[in-house]
Fold this sequence. Notes:
Blueprint: E1 15-16, E2 26-27, H1 32-44, E3 52-55, H2 60-65, H3 93-109, E4 114-118, H4 125-129, H5 131-140, H6 145-162, E5 166-170, E6 183-186, H7 191-198, E7 203-205
Parallel strand pairs: 3-4, 4-5, 5-6, 6-7
Antiparallel strand pairs: 1-2
Amino acid sequence: TEVGAYRPETHVGHGRDEFRGDGEPHGGFYTKDEIRDIVAYARERYVTIVPEIEMPGHSLAALAAYPELACTEGPFEVAMTWGVFEDIYCPTEETFEFLENVLAEVIELFPGELVHVGGDEAPKDRWEESAFVQELMEREGLGDEMEVQSWFIRRIERFLNANGRRLIGWDEILEGGLAPNATVMSWRGTVGGIEAARQGHDVVMTP
């Protein structure tokens, strides 16, 4: 989508002439008015759209436009194929400001209670190599990089809760300690969903 607070950078990599998956053109974005139309269309049919803004991984497209949000200097390119990539958001104040601005616009456009934050497939290589992240771990008393992700997600959850929304994420958000009011979508099997339910969290089984 277009993000009002971040133009023209949000247009970086939004359209490609070809895609190595099938050789067909892909890309583009929805305008805010188009999103409002889709949400209204769904609501008339008793469907609630749950938006997903992936974090801290699957963020390469954002890093291509805003390399300062990574733990390394870049430059980064929008991926042309599916994959899991080592470059993820760095948990800096600048990153949280960016994500909170994006989420504020998401909240404006999507009236449903839940906002999906992903949380899956976020390699910790860059965090392990980052002096900033290692200092953050020491300052916040975090035992490892998994706990950094949990700390990251809990911070985002506080923002969502303060704005009347609930966080939902993939079952990796269990690793390092689950955000207190999060809902879990268990996609890697049933184990994560069972554990989340035992902890008293709402669960969607999606294996």
